[in-house]
Design brief:
Blueprint (H helix, E strand, L loop, with lengths): L1 E2 L3 H9 L3 E6 L2 E6 L16 E2 L11 E7 L2 E6 L3 E7 L2 E8 L2 E5 L4 E16 L3 E16 L3 E16 L3 E17 L3 E16 L3 E16 L3 E16 L3 E17 L3 E16 L3 E16 L3 E8 L1 E7 L3 E17 L3 E16 L3 E16 L3 E16 L3 E8 L2 E6 L4 E8 L1 E6 L4 E8 L2 E8 L2 E18 L2 E16 L2 E16 L2 E17 L2 E5 L6 E5 L2 E3 L13 E5 L6 E6 L3 E6 L17
Parallel strand pairs: 5-7, 6-8, 7-9, 8-10, 9-10, 10-11, 11-12, 12-13, 13-14, 14-15, 15-16, 16-17, 17-18, 18-19, 19-20, 19-21, 20-22, 21-22, 22-23, 23-24, 24-25, 25-26, 25-27, 26-28, 27-29, 28-30, 29-31, 30-32, 31-32, 32-33, 33-34, 34-35, 35-36, 35-40, 36-41, 37-40, 38-41
Antiparallel strand pairs: 1-4, 2-3, 37-39
């Protein structure tokens, strides 16, 4: 069909195209080789156009090329090769053999492409395909977008420079590559053996992804995925956030973000590594045999973490976890940030903070070790084989501590406060702070020691108790059922009642002790009064020496003139030895001591 304002000139223009139709060895060729010397279009007001319509059997393999103009195809069933330099390519349906569609400056659109291989390339143009099915698929565009409804194949590659990629459903038996520069990548569903999705200066928005090996990367863009399921999964972002709903990786999972946060709903992986630099971590449920979670200049927040070995570290950020379960080792470490956990069950726990506090709920495990530097430790319940809690420049406050073996509580510059303390052996030490415990029970040794601080204990039961204030501090105790050894340098002692034995040395301070069912009492006070209280009809062998003796409270009198007394109120009664070098000795009646306010230590949680 020839059109134009001047039919004669148009006819001449058509003849100058030199169309040639040949048939050689079963190949039909339609060629045009214009004579560019005789072809003069300078005087044309409107340039002429030549539309070539070819009616042919659809089962013939076709090669169509045009320099300037569109190529429209209704249906071909034996594959095709179509090229245009300056024009679009529009296809209804091509199937059969290999399919090649190429355009330099023009769009490529196709409703249906089904071939052994499909290649669609354009420079400065968009590519849009409704349905594509091929063994090998390659789609490329520069300065244009790629859109597709469904793509199915063995190997699929879609690349765009300065353009977005948007595909509904993707299926690839082998490799799937999605790559965009200065553009976004968007899909609804992906099923591929190996997936690689990369975006530079663009977002990656994927719906559901199923891939044995998945690698998703973006630079200067967000990564958002509804669900990922595969063997090994790697998701990395530079200067962008990562947001994923559910992740399942049977072998290895890696999530990494620089200058961006990571948010997930649920993770299930054999081995997982999650890292952020200058971004927060917000995790829902995390399950993995080996879990490593790290944040630099960002917080770590998780609802629940469970696995064999778990490591969570934060630099300049807090760690906040609801529940953690670890069958082997659990390490929580924060620099310039706090650690908060509602419940932990770990075979071995190490929790450390530098310049940050620690707030814990119920913590259980075989070996528990808590350490802070410039931060307090607060815990509701610590239960394990052995328990160690140490603070430097911070208080230590615990509700219940229960350990089968050793309990070690230590504070350099802070108070130690425990309501209920139970262990095979118990050690509590504060250098510049006090110790306050309500109930302490041990099958072995109990040691309470301060340098500058008071020791207050409501109820102590054990085999052997040591209480020391090496510099300055008082010791106050309610009921002690143990063999006790106490040393004070500058401070008073008040023991409402002791059953067992007592060795007490005081340099500067008053001493008040209530004795009941005792084996022996030995008190040496250099500068201070000593008051002994005993119940009515209490029997003892007294060996007393001080500046003055007041024996009226026990109904006794001193037969001698010196303030000394050695007498046995009953033969074989336990010895009470008291020396008050510069103080009085007073014997007084023992008031009934009510320890109902000091609750008994509850049994360990099963």
């Amino acid at each position: 069909m020839v059109t134009g304002k001047s039919q004669e000139r148009v006819d001449g223009y058509y003849e100058s195209q030199y169309f040639d139709l040949t048939l050689e060895e079963g190949v039909l060729q339609l060629l045009s080789e214009p004579d560019w010397i005789k072809l003069d279009r300078r005087s044309w007001r409107n340039p002429p156009t030549i539309d070539v319509a070819i009616a042919m059997p659809p089962t013939v393999y076709s090669q169509l090329r045009t320099h300037t103009g569109e190529v429209l195809v209704n249906e071909l069933r034996a594959g095709a090769e179509i090229r245009t330099f300056n024009g679009k390519i529009a296809v209804d349906s091509i199937s059969g053999g290999p399919i090649k569609l190429r355009s330099s400056d023009g769009h490529i659109t196709a409703k249906e492409l089904r071939g052994s291989s499909v290649t669609a390339r354009t420079v400065n143009g968009n590519i849009a395909v409704n349905l594509l099915h091929s063994e090998d698929t390659e789609i490329r565009t520069s300065d244009g977008s790629i859109t597709a409804g469904k793509i199915h194949g063995t190997s699929v590659s879609a690349r765009s420079i300065n353009g977005s990629i948007e595909i509904g459903e993707l299926t690839s038996k082998r490799d799937l590559l999605l790559q965009s520069s200065d553009g976004n990548i968007t899909t609804k569903q992906i099923d591929a053996w190996a997936l690689t999705a990369k975006a530079i200066n663009g977002k990656v928005n994927l719906g559901r992804v199923s891939s044995d090996h998945a690698e998703i990367r973006t630079s200067d863009g967000l990564i958002s995925v509804e669900k990922i399921q595969g063997s090994s999964v790697s998701v990395r972002s530079i200067n962008g956030n990562i947001k994923i709903g559910d992740i399942t990786a049977s072998t290895v999972l890696t999530l990494q973000s620089s200058d961006g946060g990571i948010t997930t709903n649920q993770i299930d992986a054999s081995s997982l590594t999650i890292k952020t630099i200058n971004g927060p971590l917000n995790l829902g449920l995390v399950s993995g045999d080996h879990a490593e979670i790290r944040a630099s200049d960002g917080t770590i927040s998780a609802n629940k973490i469970q696995g064999e070995s778990v490591l969570a570290r934060s630099i300049n950020g807090n760690i906040k976890v609801g529940e953690i379960t670890s069958s082997k080792t659990l390490t929580l470490q924060s620099s310039d940030g706090s650690i908060t956990a509602r419940q932990i069950d770990a075979s071995s726990l190490l929790a450390r903070t530098i310049n940050g506090s620690m707030n814990l709920g119920l913590i259980a495990g075989n070996n528990l070790e808590l350490k802070t530097s410039d931060g307090a430790i607060s815990a509701e319940h610590l239960e394990g084989g052995s328990v160690s809690a140490k603070t430097i420049q911070g208080n230590l406050v615990i509700g219940l501590v229960s350990a089968k073996h050793q309990v070690n509580l230590n504070s350099s510059s802070g108070n130690i406060t425990v309501k209920h303390l139970e262990g095979g052996s118990v050690f509590a030490k504060s250098i510049r702070g006090g110790i306050h415990v309500e109930n302490v029970t041990s099958r072995g040794e109990i040691s309470l020691q301060t340098s500058n601080g008071n020791i207050i204990a409501e109820h102590i039961t054990g085999a052997f108790v040591t209480a020391k204030t090496t510099s300055k501090g008082d010791i106050k105790a309610g009921l002690i059922s143990a063999h006790a050894d106490m040393h004070l340098r500058n401070g008073d002692v008040q023991i409402r009642q002791i059953t067992g034995s007592l060795m007490l040395n005081s340099s500067n301070g008053d001493v008040e002790v209530g004795v009941a069912d005792t084996q022996y009492i030995r008190i040496n006070a250099s500068n201070g009064d000593v008051t002994l209280s005993a119940p009515e009809n209490f029997s003892a062998t007294l060996d007393l020496a001080g500046k003055n003796l007041d024996l009226s409270g026990w109904g006794l009198s001193n037969p001698g003139t010196e303030p000394k007394l050695r007498i046995a109120t009953q033969e074989g009664a336990p010895l009470i030895h008291v020396r008050a070098t510069n103080g009085d000795i007073v014997l007084a009646p023992l008031e009934n001591y009510n320890i109902s306010s000091a609750r008994a230590v509850p049994p360990p949680v099963p």
